[in-house]
Design goal:
Elements: E1 2-6, H1 10-21, E2 25-29, H2 33-40, H3 51-60, E3 64-67, E4 79-82, H4 97-109, E5 115-118, H5 126-141, E6 148-151, H6 161-166, E7 171-175, H7 178-188, E8 198-201, H8 203-234, H9 238-246, H10 267-280, H11 286-298, H12 301-309, E9 318-322, H13 337-347, E10 351-355, H14 360-367, E11 372-373, H15 377-381, E12 386-389, H16 401-407, E13 412-415, H17 422-427, E14 431-433
Parallel strand pairs: 1-2, 1-4, 2-3, 4-5, 5-6, 7-8, 9-10, 9-12, 10-11, 12-13, 13-14
Antiparallel strand pairs: 6-7
Helix pairs in contact: 1-3, 4-5, 8-10, 8-11, 10-11
Length: 439
């Protein structure tokens, strides 16, 4: 099967590489010449565990190709995936002009039947606009070439994307014709030989499924963060509460960990886009709007805890930050709680010393030279008045408390992910502050 993927961002490069790993002939397209040149050398624009060797292996095997010119590969394409960005507009709605631009280009240059499939997260109704854009270009050419459209939203978790793609718990596909359904079925069968879990549905439902899934997960996070904040005020322990409700089979234990709010490229953008869709249809999504508001406030929580501890006297304090990415196993700092914390600390006149195993370069693009980028976790903590754990990378789980006590100015730990045992940390001579630990 010949596959063309427009866009070599996170979704495009992971999808293309995994399809190639299963034997498909894949061409990834991007207008960024430098990015394509790097990919041909095996240099990736993102960090994702296990992806780099897979890209190199499939490139060398001749199954994975990269180009800046989509017209050179359309004549052999069975499926064209749109994996280009859909950044938020100022009003929170998703900007789909890149998707439509790809559709028009395909309409201008396609020579035979293909299935145009949106993998980017797009508002409900986008596929219909894509279909119209392609048909308009065919009409301008005065040619009749059959094509189908489909929606195949991705559900990849950054840091675990390869496993998610290679062994998905489900694949959602929206189609309009039996022919497109058969092609998409053949595409995914190799991934699901033992348990075929492709869920076929109409296209608007497939588009909506992605938003509903991310909004549900975001809702669980904001719900648990509010429970944690209430626990603090009432003297309850959110860790016990989390276990108590997570063992209920109707609830489960996923996404019930309190913290400093969700970030990344998906949840914030998709929640806001869903809010916008509700407003545009005259049905405000009050619950989802609350989820978004709660999350924005939660991102300020760590700063408020520091401010309270130091009685508002933060100016001149050195604060160590462990973890910059919005979650472990990724270098993605978009909408990360760490960015909000650092901005607030800098405005308060603090010196910030930060360390992250992989996200330092990405953070530097946003923060520039406004903070000190430490060489390791202990350099970050040197002479710090407080150590704030923001991202729960594994290497932060068993620190050398003796060393930290010697090098820190003040033995204070603010655990933004509740990964440490409060009693053990206090026994090491530290003051410990967690989230939702009122008891």
């Amino acid at each position: 099967m010949n596959i063309v993927i427009a866009g070599t961002g996170y979704v495009g490069i992971v999808s293309g590489t995994c399809f190639a790993e299963m034997g498909a002939h894949v061409t990834c397209v991007d207008i960024d010449r430098q990015k394509i040149d790097n990919l041909e050398k095996g240099i990736l624009p993102i960090y994702e565990p296990g992806l780099e060797p897979m890209v190199q292996r499939n490139t060398q095997a001749g199954r994975l190709h990269f180009t800046t010119d989509i017209t050179t590969c359309l004549d052999q394409a069975d499926i064209v995936f749109s994996a280009v960005g859909t950044p938020p507009n100022e009003d929170g709605s998703a900007d789909i002009h890149y998707v439509l631009e790809v559709a028009r280009t395909v309409g201008k240059h396609m020579t035979g039947y293909l299935v145009f499939t949106t993998k980017s997260t797009v508002p409900v109704g986008t596929a219909a606009k894509v279909k119209q854009a392609i048909q308009q270009e065919l009409d301008k050419r005065n040619v009749t070439i059959p094509f189908d459209i489909a929606s195949n939203p991705e559900f990849l978790k950054e840091g675990d994307a390869i496993r998610d793609f290679m062994s998905p718990d489900r694949v959602v596909v929206g189609v309009e014709s039996e022919k497109a359904r058969k092609i998409m079925e053949n595409l995914y069968r190799p991934f699901l030989l033992k348990n075929f879990r492709v869920l076929f549905m109409d296209i608007p439902s497939a588009e909506m499924t992605k938003y509903a899934a991310n909004a549900m997960l975001a809702t669980r996070i904001s719900f648990m963060n509010q429970v944690a904040n209430l626990c603090e005020r009432l003297g309850a322990d959110v860790n016990s509460v989390r276990l108590g409700i997570g063992t209920d089979s109707r609830i489960g234990n996923k996404f019930l960990y309190p913290g400093a709010g969700y970030g990344g490229s998906c949840f914030p953008k998709d929640v806001k886009a869903m809010i916008r869709m509700g407003r545009e249809t005259g049905y405000p999504l009050e619950l989802i709007e609350s989820v978004d508001r709660v999350n924005e406030e939660q991102k300020k929580l760590l700063f408020h805890k520091l401010q309270k501890h130091f009685k508002g006297e933060l100016k001149g304090k050195t604060i160590a930050i462990w973890g910059l990415s919005f979650k472990p196993q990724t270098d993605d700092v978009r909408q990360a709680p760490s960015m909000v914390l650092i901005d607030n600390l800098l405005q308060a006149g603090c010196r910030v010393q930060a360390y992250d195993p992989v996200a330092m370069e990405q953070a530097q693009h946003l923060l520039g030279k406004s903070i000190h980028y430490a060489g390791d976790m202990y350099q970050a903590a040197n002479q710090a008045h407080a150590l704030v754990l923001v991202t729960e990378w594994k290497e932060f789980r068993m620190p050398d408390w003796d060393m930290l006590r010697k090098i820190m100015h003040t033995p204070l730990v603010l655990d933004g992910r509740n990964i440490y045992n409060p009693q053990e940390v206090r026994e090491q001579g530290f003051e410990y502050i967690g989230i939702g630990l009122g008891a």
